[in-house]
Amino acid sequence: MTPPKLTLELIPSSSWFDNLRSQLPKETWDTLRRASYRAARYRCQICGGKGPDHPVECHERWNFDHLNHVQKLEGLIALCPACHAVKHFGLACLRGEQDAAEKHLMKVNHWTRAQMLEHVAQSFATWEEYSTLEWSLDLSWLESL
Questions:
Q1: 131, 120, 53: which is closest to 86 by C-alpha?
Q2: Residue 80 — very low, low, confident or very high, per pLDDT cuts 50/70/90?
Q3: DSSP string, the chain
Q4: Percent of the chain at pLDDT exceeding 70
Q5: Which among 83, 126, 139, 144 has the fewest CB atoms less than 10 Å away?
Q6: Distance between first and last Cα of the chain
Q7: What's the CA gap between 37 and 21, in Å, rounded?
Q8: φ/ψ of residue 104, rounded to 5
Q9: What is the pLDDT of residue 68?
Q10: 80, 70, 145: which is closest to 108 by C-alpha?
Q11: What is the mean pLDDT of residues 89-111?
């Protein structure tokens, strides 16, 4: 089976608000996010689309080493607002955007509703487990710039 193009990436609640943007001066974050937009030619790097109000948003890609409790930055990608809402599905739900996020997830992955619901359930199970842990932040990716 082909891996899905779009997946949920629920950040553990113990790591909320502890991200690259919160760790950098605003001008440095702005430089990095704008570079990700330009590198993607202002198109979503998952679905190829653009948003209606602004074309793309910057998304931080994280790897969670659950054995050592390390949240490691893997890089930045440009996503359309619809794909970004899926990545941050919990926030989309809080904003009343769950239905739109679910539909976009099914569309991009060519999934049935049952496949989408299974992925959402698995993602929330992982989130619950990871949210019980305290994570250290590894931003060594920035040294490669």
A1: 120
A2: very high
A3: -PPPS----PPPGGGTT-SHHHHS-HHHHHHHHHHHHHHTTTS-TTT----SSSS-EEEEEEEEETTTTEEEEEEEEEE-HHHHHHHTHHHHHHTT-HHHHHHHHHHHHT--HHHHHHHHHHHHHHHHHHTTS--EEE-GGGGG-
A4: 99
A5: 144
A6: 35
A7: 16
A8: -65, -40
A9: 96
A10: 80
A11: 97
Average pLDDT over residues 131-137: 92
What pLDDT, on a 0 to 100 scale, did the predictor assign at position 116? Answer: 97
Query: Residue 1's pLDDT band (boundaries 50, 70, 90)?
Result: low
Written as six digits, the tokens of 110 are: 């060519």
Token match 């891996």: residue?
3
66, 75, 15, 90: which is closest to 45 by C-alpha?
75
Confidence (pTM)? 0.93
